[in-house]
């Protein structure tokens, strides 16, 4: 909507890398806090690159991102970077049991070596995003390397329990193991919340989970779907959330934090897009105008962004993927003024869904500029210059988007060369 501002923000991040030698994780004023884990700067900058917002600075940004993804800042640097990347490169995962100050530098803030399971999943997703940028810039060998690393999420999948599970440096599974608490080896969540954090390859994840029907059943359990149908607001408040900042209490959806925010849209890959509409509307009941009108910390606008995208029925599930997942809009009509940025984007997108309501939430059909859309996603280029996105809704689920091949792309699985 404001590409000029977004470009300024992205180039400011690149400037931090230029001046400090390393890209930030959570910069505050003129310092690095090292708050949070994983590698959030990579999907952020890759998304900016995919929209043309790094024009003239692509090579510099890519060099910094590659450095960040393949090496660790020295001991005298204030940056943590990917503190577990050496183990990740060697083993395909960050192992459990690492000691701060011995196996990993202790610079304060959060550290990937303390939360190795979630760090592995985040590294893998970031690498898959970076593979897209590498390919786009013509770095084919790098693209193959990062695409392969985008599949390392599989190294932590324990088929015997059907969950992601931390393992030690010798390859053994951490035992005993409770997926709810998960030994705090996932950051601000357990294995249940993190089981969906494979935005680069949802189709591959569905395969690990036993296929579309098994994944749909797992999602139903995760969202307490049967209860949602009769008491969406109560289920969201009582079954999903323990307390605003309790991230380890339940084996269910936790929309007061980021790791599983995109989970409702996994129904699209399971062939059940109608259920995504039910879950999203239930989650929206947690947003109010009161003092507790947001379920958790907005974290640089993440919760607000989830609400805005979900309200429009257009959700970006994969950074740099250049597609938007489709679902049911919250409003009968919405107008999005897409900011102009050269020839890449600019125009007015009108989203219509006559009669949209909590009851009338299921998509019967979608059209873009008068043409039927049978799949559950759109390329960014299809809406970058505006248009009219029209929905027909119903009070009952339909067959829209349920066929094989209707699901959005799994970019980490389909583009490895």
Report a brief summary of the structure.
This is Glycosyl hydrolase family 92 domain-containing protein. With 417 residues, the protein is an alpha+beta fold.
Keyword list:
417 residues, alpha+beta, Glutathione S-transferase Yfyf (Class Pi), Chain A, domain 2, 5-stranded mixed sheet, 3-stranded antiparallel sheet, 16 helices, 12 strands, 36% helix, 12% strand, PNGase, Glycosyl hydrolase family 92 domain-containing protein, Glyco_hydro_92, peptide-N4-(N-acetyl-beta-glucosaminyl)asparagine amidase activity, 6-hairpin_glycosidase_sf
What can you see in these coordinates?
It is a single chain. The chain is of the alpha+beta class. Helix content is 36%, strand content 12%. It has a domain at 1-158 and 166-195: Glutathione S-transferase Yfyf (Class Pi), Chain A, domain 2. The chain has 16 helices and twelve strands. The strands form four sheets. It has a five-stranded mixed beta sheet with strand order 7-8-12-9-10. It has a three-stranded antiparallel beta sheet with strand order 5-6-11. The longest helix has 21 residues, at 116-136. The radius of gyration is 21 Å and the shape is globular. One of its GO terms (biological process) is carbohydrate metabolic process.
């Amino acid at each position: 909507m404001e590409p000029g501002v977004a470009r300024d923000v992205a180039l400011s991040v690149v400037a931090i890398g230029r001046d400090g030698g390393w890209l930030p994780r959570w910069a505050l004023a003129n310092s690095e806090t090292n708050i949070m884990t994983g590698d959030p700067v990579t999907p952020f900058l890759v998304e900016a690159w995919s929209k043309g917002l790094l024009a003239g600075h692509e090579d510099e940004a890519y060099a910094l991102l590659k450095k960040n993804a393949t090496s660790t800042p020295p001991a005298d640097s204030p940056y943590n970077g990917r503190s577990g990347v050496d183990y990740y490169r060697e083993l395909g995962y960050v192992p459990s049991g690492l000691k701060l100050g011995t196996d990993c530098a202790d610079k304060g803030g959060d550290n990937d070596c303390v939360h190795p399971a979630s760090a592995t999943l985040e590294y893998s997703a970031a690498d898959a995003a970076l593979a897209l940028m590498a390919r786009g810039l013509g770095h084919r060998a790098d693209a193959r390397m990062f695409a392969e690393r985008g599949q390392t999420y599989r190294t932590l999948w324990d088929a015997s329990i059907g969950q992601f599970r931390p393992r030690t440096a010798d390859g053994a599974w951490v035992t005993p193991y409770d997926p709810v608490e998960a030994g705090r080896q996932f950051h601000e969540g357990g294995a249940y919340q993190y089981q969906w954090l494979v935005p680069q390859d949802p189709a591959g994840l569905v395969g690990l989970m036993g296929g579309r029907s098994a994944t749909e059943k797992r999602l139903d359990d995760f969202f307490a779907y049967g209860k949602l149908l009769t008491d969406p607001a109560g289920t969201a408040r009582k079954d999903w959330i323990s307390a605003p900042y309790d991230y380890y209490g339940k084996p269910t959806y936790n929309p007061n934090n980021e790791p599983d925010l995109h989970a409702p849209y996994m129904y699209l890959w399971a062939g059940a897009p109608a259920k995504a509409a039910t879950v999203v509307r239930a989650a929206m009941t947690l947003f109010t105008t009161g003092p507790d009108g947001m379920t958790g910390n907005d974290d640089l606008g993440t919760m607000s962004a989830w609400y805005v995208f979900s309200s429009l029925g257009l959700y970006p599930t994969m950074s740099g993927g250049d597609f938007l997942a489709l679902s049911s809009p919250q409003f009968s009509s919405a107008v999005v003024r897409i900011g102009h940025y050269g020839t890449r984007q600019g125009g007015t997108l009108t989203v219509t869904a006559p009669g949209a309501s909590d009851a009338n939430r299921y998509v019967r059909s979608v059209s873009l500029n008068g043409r039927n859309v049978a799949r559950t996603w759109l390329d960014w280029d299809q809406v970058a210059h505006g248009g009219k996105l029209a929905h027909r809704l119903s009070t009952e689920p339909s067959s829209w988007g349920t066929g094989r091949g209707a699901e959005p792309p799994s970019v980490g699985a389909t583009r490895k060369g």
